[in-house]
Amino acid sequence: MPTCWQGWVVYVIYVALLFAGIVEILWERKSPPGLVVYAIGLSLVLTFVCWLKGEKLAWRSGGKEE
Questions:
Q1: Which of 6, 11, 14, 24 is paired with 50 by a 20 to 30 Å CA distance?
Q2: Is the Cβ–Cβ distance between 16 and 46 less than 8 Å?
Q3: CA nearest to 7, candidates 41, 39, 46
């Protein structure tokens, strides 16, 4: 989950775009495969933003730090 307000803004935009896609694609065009492609693409964009702007990955073995 986001830890600062900028992260929450990105998360809210993601949810809003996902909801808008559900409304547009399912209720008006009735194309579930299109919704899957849209949701995967949107999720990939969110993942890229998180990777780009988030904390760097680090190995956590559970032992004491040196």
A1: 24
A2: no
A3: 46
Write down the domain spans for the chain. Answer: 12-53
Angstrom distance (rounded) from CA 30 to CA 36: 12
36 φ/ψ angles, rounded to the nearest 5 degrees: -65, -45
Scanning 1-66, the segments in alpha helix (DSSP H) are 5-21, 32-53
The crossing angle, in degrees rounded to 10, of helices 32-53 and 5-21 is: 170
What is the reported pTM?
Answer: 0.75
pLDDT digits (tens, 9 = 90+) for 29-41: 667 888 889 999 9
